[in-house]
């Protein structure tokens, strides 16, 4: 314990460590103060740009790293500032301006467009810049980078920009207000900064300060903009009030609702920000890619609620935070369905039947806040809190009382709590140093009202590189405490560490990890299985400069040797070889060959990994290939296919995906994807019956059709479509099997039952988006959907028959209109005072 305290003291109270050596020859430029800021219109003739130092002599980042820019594609950047904002202009030469790629897209989407990017890091730590990007069609893109490589395009700032296609090429002007940046309140400042220019026609990215793409992270190679003088962080208070109306129709039943609320961003200090959502409304979130799940683990979905996708980089460390837990399915600790009565006969003259008449599928979040930021010394601090309301299922109880020859029936309803009032907390301390390393302490806590379980998880994480960013040590120690009873807790823990070489052409890593049988972060995090340990590693070669027909390519070999943790039983080995590449003509392709030895699966039997019961899986060899053609062309195609061989059994697994996309013009494009998967003679768990574990042999077929498209009226107004139909049919063979718990083999059984499955998930979303003012939007949303859990048809039917039956089912129609308005406190203050 004494050593643990010393480690925390070393980590979080500050140490002096030398700066990284990967960026020794950084370019420098002096910032120029202006009294007459430029008009942001894409015209570079403003007086503010005269007699200003120029950032020039750009260098290739890719494909030919380190080569000087071509004479016909030279770029010149200028920067000025005043008391309110930083202003940046870029003049970019192009020999044929009429052919500059300039696709219209929604905000934060690149499309097929040239672009200019300003990457700004006021604390100059080499790890946490923000990026402001303008495409050649005028689309704004912004992103917050964390830990040197995690780009968060969900982060959004309100800033101003414009562009012009000219006779020399094209030009960009930006105004980035100080409210969009985090910087110290010092009289004289120097900021890390780099400028990127993408030229799609020649497949080239240029940067002002040279980036060695074989060493370190690209955020470590900023140039330096010096001599910002007498600028002060403004009061950062932004309000996003919203109002929405929504209607839902299913069959002849229509429900209408409305909501008002507000999101708040407030700068607590020059480096820390409070984000809050009050009375949140998530009615316009995109649909989940639900699919039939026959395995022992839950399906994981991506987060689509903006509050949980923006600015959460601190909270996601250690894989202890899976935001879908908040406002997700009810805990249902008391197994509502399992406790219902259903009397077949009269007992003492009475018969009772209970059924669920209303079971809410999700928990309502009441509000949430997060506080996050980083000091100038590299200490990141994060606090997150969310509250969810009590959720109840409604049970209808029917009592029949026999009086003589008469039966008297009475009905009443009562409620059962499926999720109590709950509080979710996260606290993070993240110390970064050396422009490439960090040590993190994170704690998550879930407290539920009443007899429902509470949970606590803590993680200590480390990623340490040498000063040249060549070698690293990476790992974590995590512990969980689950309390189903106030007087008892169940502790669990996991450990992972590795050492590797990450720079240069040859790279490698070797490591070890385990989770003990009681490690369980799933109240607020996600983990599919515990009681496992693995020795793992990889070695690989990469060529990042053009050679022959290739722009770049690489080959990797990896391996895992797996054991149970508690018993130490060997469960199997996985290994594989992968290849990836990009040609000079922008054709990306690659493939994998993966091998698994005969293995022991302790999870498929659903008896717990400590039971000693396993299902023996046969030796397997998987081959797959993928490819993607040049997105610069109007027609591009993505595809992949795979085939899996199994030793000793007649099982086969194969499938493919074909995805053409067509850009009709710079405003209109459509993407289509068809996926087909087939598994013949699959063996899997069905049920448990009087101590027997029943398996079945099945054929599984999956079809998935998806369509997405967009039409952009201009850079601030667009219409978009998203459609997905996923169909899986799983007919079981007549012969079922019982699992021999002594050796993991299957033996025929006389047990029978109907376990065929037919699963459909249908969703169609249509969105109209209009940004009528900076940061303010009007969004009209329509969804057509069918319950993804439907099992309304036999399993052994054709695709056409399934579609006909599908449209006989009840559809849900949802329409909503949402208005969000951006209010900056400083604008109000300037008007009123």
Notes on the structure:
The chain is 4% helix and 54% strand. The chain has 833 residues and is mainly beta. The strands form 5 sheets. The protein has a 24-stranded antiparallel barrel. Strand 35 (620-628) and strand 36 form a beta hairpin. The longest helix has 11 residues, at 2-12.
Question: What percent of residues are in strands?
Answer: over 45%
Evaluate the radius of gyration. 30 Å
Number of strands: 46
Helix percentage range: under 10%
**Average pLDDT taken over every residue:** 92
Biggest sheet architecture:
24 strands, antiparallel, barrel
Helices and strands in order, then pairings?
Blueprint: H1 2-12, E1 28-30, E2 32-33, E3 59-62, E4 75-81, E5 85-93, E6 115-121, E7 130-135, E8 140-146, E9 150-152, E10 160-165, E11 169-177, E12 188-199, E13 204-207, E14 223-229, E15 237-250, E16 253-267, E17 272-278, H2 306-309, E18 350-358, E19 365-374, E20 379-388, E21 391-403, E22 406-419, E23 422-433, E24 437-448, E25 454-465, E26 471-485, E27 488-501, E28 506-515, E29 532-543, E30 550-564, E31 570-583, E32 588-596, E33 599-601, E34 615-617, E35 620-628, E36 635-646, E37 652-663, E38 668-689, E39 692-714, E40 717-730, E41 732-739, E42 746-749, E43 757-773, E44 776-786, H3 799-806, E45 812-820, E46 823-824, H4 825-832
């Amino acid at each position: 314990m004494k050593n643990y305290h010393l480690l925390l003291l070393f980590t979080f109270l500050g140490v002096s460590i030398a700066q990284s050596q990967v960026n020794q020859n950084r370019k420098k430029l002096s910032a120029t103060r202006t009294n007459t800021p430029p008009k942001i219109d894409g015209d570079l003739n403003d007086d503010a740009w005269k007699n200003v130092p120029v950032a020039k002599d750009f260098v290739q980042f890719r494909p030919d790293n380190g080569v000087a820019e071509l004479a016909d594609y030279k770029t010149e950047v200028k920067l000025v500032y005043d008391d309110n904002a930083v202003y940046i202009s870029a003049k970019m030469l192009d020999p044929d301006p009429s052919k500059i790629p300039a696709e219209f897209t929604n905000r934060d989407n690149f499309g097929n467009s040239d672009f200019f990017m300003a990457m700004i890091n006021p604390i100059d730590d080499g790890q946490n810049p923000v990026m402001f990007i303008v495409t050649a069609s005028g689309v704004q893109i912004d992103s917050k980078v964390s830990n040197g490589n995690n780009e968060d395009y969900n982060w959004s700032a309100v800033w101003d920009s414009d562009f012009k296609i000219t006779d020399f090429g094209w030009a960009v002007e930006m105004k980035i207000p100080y409210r969009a940046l985090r910087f110290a309140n010092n009289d004289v400042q120097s900021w890390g900064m780099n400028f990127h220019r993408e030229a799609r026609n020649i497949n080239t990215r240029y940067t002002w300060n040279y980036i060695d793409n074989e060493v370190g992270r690209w955020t470590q190679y900023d140039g330096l903009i010096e001599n910002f003088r007498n600028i002060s962080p403004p009061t950062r208070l932004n309000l996003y009030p919203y109002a929405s109306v929504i209607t839902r129709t299913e069959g002849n039943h229509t429900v209408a609702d409305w909501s008002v609320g507000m999101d708040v961003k407030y700068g607590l200090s020059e480096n820390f920000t409070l984000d809050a959502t009050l009375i949140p409304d998530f009615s316009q979130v995109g649909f989940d890619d639900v699919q039939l799940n026959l395995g022992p683990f839950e399906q994981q979905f991506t987060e689509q609620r903006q509050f949980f996708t923006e600015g959460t980089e601190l909270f996601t460390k250690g894989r202890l935070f899976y935001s879908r837990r908040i406002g997700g399915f009810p805990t249902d600790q008391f197994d509502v369905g399992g406790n219902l009565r259903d009397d077949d006969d009269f007992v003492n003259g009475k018969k009772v039947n209970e059924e669920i008449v209303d079971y809410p599928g999700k928990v309502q979040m009441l509000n949430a806040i997060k506080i996050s930021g980083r000091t100038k010394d590299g200490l990141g601090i994060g606090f997150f809190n969310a509250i969810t309301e009590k959720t109840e299922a409604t049970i209808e109880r029917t009592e029949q009382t026999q009086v003589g020859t008469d039966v008297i029936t009475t009905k009443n309803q009562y409620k059962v709590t499926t999720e109590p009032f709950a509080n979710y907390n996260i606290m993070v301390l993240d110390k970064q140093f050396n422009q490439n390393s960090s040590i993190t302490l994170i704690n998550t806590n879930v407290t539920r009202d009443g007899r429902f379980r509470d949970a606590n998880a803590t993680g200590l994480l480390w990623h340490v590189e040498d000063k040249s960013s060549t070698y690293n040590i990476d790992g974590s120690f995590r512990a969980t405490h689950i309390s189903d009873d106030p007087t008892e807790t169940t502790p669990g823990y996991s450990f992972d560490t590795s050492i590797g070489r990450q720079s240069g052409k040859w790279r490698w890593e070797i490591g070890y990890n385990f989770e003990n049988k009681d490690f369980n972060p799933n109240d607020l995090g996600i983990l599919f299985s515990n009681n496992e340990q693995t020795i793992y590693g990889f070695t690989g070669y990469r060529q990042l400069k053009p050679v022959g027909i290739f722009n770049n390519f690489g080959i990797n070999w990896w391996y895992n040797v797996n054991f149970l943790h508690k018993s130490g039983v060997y469960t199997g080995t996985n290994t594989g070889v992968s290849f990836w590449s990009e040609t000079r003509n922008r054709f990306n392709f690659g493939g994998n060959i993966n091998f698994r030895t005969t293995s022991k699966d302790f999870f498929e039997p659903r008896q717990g990994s400590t039971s000693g019961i396993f299902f023996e899986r046969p030796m397997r060899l998987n081959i797959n290939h993928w490819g993607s053609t040049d997105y610069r062309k109007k027609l591009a195609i993505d595809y992949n296919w795979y085939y899996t061989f199994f030793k000793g059994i007649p099982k086969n697994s194969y499938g493919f995906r074909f995805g053409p996309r067509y850009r009709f013009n710079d405003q209109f494009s459509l993407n289509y994807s068809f996926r087909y998967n087939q598994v013949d003679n699959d063996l899997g768990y069905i049920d448990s019956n009087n101590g027997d574990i029943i398996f079945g042999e099945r054929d599984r077929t999956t079809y998935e059709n998806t369509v997405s498209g967009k039409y952009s009226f201009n850079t601030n107004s667009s219409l978009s479509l998203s459609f997905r139909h996923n169909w899986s049919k799983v007919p079981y063979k007549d012969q079922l099997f019982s699992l021999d718990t002594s050796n993991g083999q299957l033996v025929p059984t006389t047990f029978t039952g109907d376990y065929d499955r037919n699963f459909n998930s249908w969703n169609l979303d249509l969105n109209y988006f209009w940004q009528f003012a900076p940061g303010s939007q009007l969004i009209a949303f329509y969804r057509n959907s069918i319950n993804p859990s439907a099992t309304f048809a036999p399993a052994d039917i054709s695709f056409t028959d399934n579609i006909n039956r599908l449209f006989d089912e009840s559809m849900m129609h949802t329409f909503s209109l949402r208005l969000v308005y951006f209010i900056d406190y400083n604008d109000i203050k300037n008007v009123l005072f």
